[in-house]
Cytochrome c oxidase subunit II / ba3-type terminal oxidase subunit II (Haloferax mucosum ATCC BAA-1512), 180 residues
Amino acid sequence: MEIHTYEKVWLALSLVLIVGFIATIAYGASAGPGIDMIDDKGGTVDPATLDEHPKFGDPGIEKTGENQYDVYVVARQFVFEPGTSEPLRVPEGSTVTFHVTAADVIHGFEVVGTNANTMAIPGQVAEFTVEFDEAGEYGILCNEYCGSGHHVMEGTILVMEQSEFDSWYEQQEQQTGGEN
Ligand code: CUA
């Protein structure tokens, strides 16, 4: 059987494409480009008793070290807590580890204009870390269809100057009796 030259060229090119696609995925899945895939390291929670959970019962920000913070977020039809009724506040120059879960159905949690993006699944905690270098405002969007109010489900992340954040945080601590 004779294979025409053009056919050989097309075969070779398709092979290059296939190998290229696989290489792209392998590169993206590795830590190489600084992309962190969401996996199961965040653990699980019981969505039915979320309100009694030590962290998700009163979600918000918690200082864990010098410039290090943990943020707990609950997504539910059709709000982010915190994020929707009040902005999710973080200080500039901080490293923030998000723990995101859902109370009812599957939601999305996307920080607009960044590569911070995860699904919020009832029972699962999505964990990922973001560095906020500059003060400013970011939008949060739900990007998984979650019901009639999906299109209005959004929130705000406010990256504040450190001193501003500190006084807000102190006030929070006092209000909640230091539980946070
Ligand atoms: Cu929540 Cu769409």
Observations:
- The beta strands are 61-65, 68-76, 79-81, 88-91, 94-102, 107-111, 117-120, 126-132, 136-141, 154-160.
